[in-house]
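Support request, please re-run this one:
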Amino acid sequence: MGWSSTLKDKRRFVSSTSVIAVSAIVVAAALVYDGEATADLELNDSGVWVTKTSTGELGRFNYESQALDGTLLAGSSSFDVQQAGQRVLLDDDAASSAAPWTRRTWSSTGR
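Re-run finished. Output below.
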């Protein structure tokens, strides 16, 4: 057993130790990480309202068909949509107003 076999043993030991340490770090990180936050949606009619505030657009996404049922302009870039069952409310922060929306006519009933 010469000098070269001792060096090979040390390399093997360092390699094995490194693999075990990296594996332990990956497992520990996986156990500690909470994951990405998700929203649990209750889609009564397979639809959800979506907003794109940068362009002031509002639309209804039909999850079953994977398509937008329709879109409209909210008239502001500072708005949000609230929905409870079939009731939809467009809340416009810039105008300090709120208006109910109907998806049948794609219009605001309060403006």
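The chain has a mean pLDDT of 79. The chain is about 25% helix and 35% strand.
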